[in-house]
Fold this sequence. Notes:
The complex is a heterodimer.
Chain A: H1 8-11, H2 27-32, H3 37-61, H4 70-92, H5 94-100, H6 111-121, H7 126-156, E1 158-159, E2 162-163, H8 178-196
Antiparallel strand pairs in A: 1-2
Chain B: H1 7-17, H2 28-34, H3 38-67, H4 76-98, H5 100-106, H6 109-112, H7 117-128, H8 133-161, H9 173-188
Amino acid sequence: MKKLIEPKSFSAGLWKENPIFFLMLGLCPLLAVSSSLKDAIGMGVAFIFVLTGSNITVSIIRKVVPSHIRIPVFIVVIATFVTIADYSLAAYLPKLHRNLGVYLPLMVVNCIILGRAEAFASKNNLINSALDGLGMGIGFTLAIIIIAFLRELPGQGTLLGINILGENYKPFLIMIMPPGAFFVIGFLIALKNSIGGRKKC
Amino acid sequence: MLNEMNLGLIFLSAFIINNILLIRFLGLCSFIGISTNLKSSAGMGIAVVFVTVMACSISWAVYQYLLIPFHLEYLRTATFILTIASFVQFEEILIRKKVPALYKAFGIYLPLITTNCAILASAFLGIDYKFSFIQNLVFAFGISSGYCFVIVLFASIRERIDTSPIPSSFRGIPIAFIIAGLMSLAFLGFKGLFKL
């Protein structure tokens, strides 16, 4: 019997089971919207909202849903939260919404969200599922912020649109273009491998 | 504007200039996951071409003739994912019954495609660009053949890389990302081909 509240379900997502660096899931939005720190934070917040919301809902309905149709039901739940996030951003932050573009509705097929619904929320109680969603969401946001920081600073010499490196800095443009994203994540994973010992694939 | 362009340009733009994998970063999970082997990458690529073209046509029709007349555009996300998922299921059953040889060739890749974001993305992008049916068809074909082309190239490179001396911390996934970055760099060169 599991305890009602397990703090571990929150902390696991932050580093030990970080969805990006350890599970290698949900890479698409991570690479696509990390060219500026502002967009990355917006994406992260939307992601936390959708993941926590869907985890809570799935956990509430987990005993009612017959197991052979659970995946379509989970997808509809996720799609609902994605639509809420999509339309709220379009109404209140239209500029961010335009920058995130097609990657926002595409959260619906993000492997992390469906993966957590299936692997965690459908088996655990409400509070643990909410904590897990928050933890995983924050883990994702941290990863995307690290990558955006490493791309925006050399790529534009700015952070959050504020000039950091001075007027004379010649931007290393490739970092904010698509190849930069691949290089940054490649080097980050290599760094993680050399620190923590290679994970067996 | 993209929706006034002729079909050839739409195809080229989707195929190479805005390549779905290297420039738009979609469908990366399967890209990194499957491309360790040339044969399975080719299988996945062809299955993606097949499903994308069909699924995009269906979701385009659903959007234009069902969602717009009833003012249900906000249900787009939920409708498209369900359309694609049920279509893939239907197609799987159909192929298994009618063309068993093809079913064997596609194998596990057909069901996996449901969660491939490249397909959902081409359905969304086709709507966002306000394409006509034919344009949408060409666009979907361009995107998916771009996927197929790049995943086959990438798998061939990765097969060679496996036998090369690489620093141990780069082995496996990190070096795959570096290769993808270099390929993306090469694809960026096509950007000046014509103005979007």
